[in-house]
Amino acid sequence: MTLTGLSLAYLRDRALTTALNVLLIALAVGAMVTLLLFSSQLQNRFARDAQGIDLVVGAKGSPMQLILSSVLHVDVPTGNVPLETLARLRANPMVAEAIPLALGDNFRGHRIVGTEPAYARRYDAGLAAGRMFAAPMEAVLGAEVAETTGAGLGQRFTGSHGLAGDGGGHEHEAQPFTVVGVLRPTGTVLDRLILTPVASVWDVHGIARPEEADAGEAHGHEHDHAHDHAGEGGEAAHAEAPPAEVTAILVRYRTPMAAIRLPEQINDEPGLQAAVPALEITRLFQLVGVGVDALRALAVVLLVSGGLSIFVALYTALRQREGDMAMLRVIGSSRRAIFGQAVLEGVLLAAAGAVVGVLLGHAITAAAAAAFPQLRDVGLSALRFHPGEAWIVLAAVAVGAVAALIPALRVFRVDLADTLARA
């Protein structure tokens, strides 16, 4: 039997102790892998979702809520802003691009976003089929939307009021959308959105488009005298439609000076606020980072505890196996070979725990993504592996090797003649 086979035989002989040591290492590695997957994937996804967006303009409220709702699409909006704000931003010499977003409805849990083709270009999104929307009530599906709903070109669907697909929202059956395009996967928030012109959102909610409102106002002035006799019933019938608004505006700066002056100008306006995605996402991870650091420290403690457990188990086992070591010497094994066999036991324990821990970490990530749709929506996936996982495995194996070194040194202190005499 080889020394490796002998190590495995000794581990099988102490099955319960072996299983407990493997479990302790696995818990530590699993926690580290889970934290690594959460932090790395969410940071990368948030960075991709916010690429090319210098500023978000929305209604007064929480800046972080504005970023979560309009950039990451995982929260409810803070409100609406007047359409005139969009025109003023586009006329501002410090602004290179201003893209409107109009939210409010969903289709099977996927948000319907009223916007412009420039929004898709911001993420370098290409078409997998069809074309980009060109008229109200035309829709372009993100890759994930097309996959999960099974919708294809030419299919008609109706949106439900609200941003969550809980089935509680009123369906706008009188205003169906028609699918005219499907986007290629981008690995960004775009994959789970349905894009349509802003005018589609206005039409669905009975909001007059700006040109229609202007025409209606002019028509009303010409015929005011003809409706004076209509009374209260006539006034109700001709009540003004809600004003045309958008939910948020995504801004890209033209000059570096805009980063200093533009947010301050917007925040000084009543009812408006400006939020910087980079700052708010950094602040979000700083808030979450305290808990992540605490969990990471706990995982390190578990890993050290696993190393101590391996040390105690091997120290006890080698004391009980002094006779075996003496017999191995008699049949020709060197002290170095026996020492290596003892260290190998610790390495095998740690390696087994590390492998189980990696699988456990990915299983926890999969369970979290399944239990919390918000995590899945922001791109958390158990199918992605991070290069840092290899370093975690190596660290666990190193802990096992170090923990086995001191017990293994007993090999050099065993007196062959004395041990055989006692046996």
In percent, how helical is the residue content?
A: 55-70%
Assembly type: single chain
* pLDDT < 50 runs, ≥5 residues: 213-239
N-to-C order of helices and strands: HHEHEHEEHEEHEEEEHHHEEHEHHHHHH
Overall number of structural domains: 2
Beta strand %:
5-15%
Average pLDDT taken over every residue? 82
Main beta sheet, described?
A: 11 strands, mixed
Distance between the termini: 22 Å
Task: Please report the number of helical segments.
Answer: 16
Main structural class: alpha+beta
**Radius of gyration, taken over Cα atoms and rounded to an integer in Å:** 32 Å
| 3D shape | elongated
Count of distinct strands: 13
How is this structure best described in words?
The chain has helices at residues 3-13, 15-49, 63-70, 83-91, 117-122, 143-149, 198-204, 210-222, 231-237, 258-267, 277-320, 322-330, 335-371, 373-377, 388-408, 416-422; strands spanning 55-59, 81-82, 95-107, 110-115, 127-130, 138-141, 156-157, 160-161, 177-183, 193-197, 245-246, 248-253, 272-275. The chain is an alpha+beta fold. The chain folds into two domains: 3-46 and 290-422, no CATH class; 55-207 and 242-275, no CATH class. The strands form two sheets. Strands 1, 3, 4, 5, 6, 7, 8, 9, 10, 12 and 13 form an eleven-stranded mixed β-sheet that branches. Strands 2-11 form a two-stranded antiparallel ribbon. Helix 1 (3-13) packs across helix 13 (335-371), helix 2 (15-49) packs across helix 13 and helix 13 packs antiparallel against helix 15 (388-408).
